[in-house]
Structure formats: C-alpha cells, structure tokens
Write a structure and sequence with these properties.
alpha+beta, Glutaredoxin, four-stranded mixed β-sheet, 3 helices
Length: 103
C-alpha cells in the first residue's frame, strides 16, 4: 500500500502525522510512505491538496471532507478528542486496516 504524506513547511502538524505514519509503517512491511512537499498554490491545485497534512492511500485522500477546499493551509481533523491537526494513531490504523477504504 502506497501512502503519500502531502504537506507544506509552514504547518507544524505534518511532523506529528509523519511520526505516526512512520510508527505504523515500522509495524507493517506492506506500507510504503513517501512525503510530497506542496509549496505553491499552483501545486496545491494540481494535486488536490486539502491542507497540511493530507494523507493519500494509493492516491486517495481517505480523510477528505466533501466540501474541503484546496490550498496552502493547515488542515483540521475530527478526532474522538475533538478537532486536531492530525488524525490519531487509532484513526490511521483503522483507515489502513480497511485497505484504503474511506474513513
């Protein structure tokens, strides 16, 4: 399973997500995680960037809200503890356990 972490440097939340994905990938040999820096509005539009961090599984953004805009911004995730800058480990594991099914 290919996981792409889309991010931009001005948002600190991508680092937390990167650490969480690395921990999960260390447990699962079938996961390959790559990073993709999005640094211009044009690039954000081209890749359908819904904010930093965005997690694509085999090219699909599993956490995208139907009305999510595209652009260089920090992203907010709904977690059991409330809104956060990154999905929880449990949310990531559940999304990846479903083989890339929508969360």
């Amino acid at each position: 399973m290919d996981i792409t972490l889309l991010y931009f440097d001005d948002c600190p939340n991508w680092r937390v997500t990167d650490e969480r994905l690395a921990a999960i990938a260390a447990e699962r040999a079938d996961l390959k995680v790559t990073r993709h820096l999005v640094d211009t509005p044009e690039e954000a539009e081209r890749v359908g960037f819904h904010g930093s961090p965005s997690i694509l599984v085999d090219g699909v953004d599993l956490f995208a809200e139907p009305d999510a805009g595209v652009g260089l911004s920090c992203r907010v995730y709904r977690t059991p503890q409330g809104l956060a800058g990154a999905p929880t480990m449990e949310q990531l594991r559940a999304a990846l356990a479903d083989g890339g099914g929508t969360v």
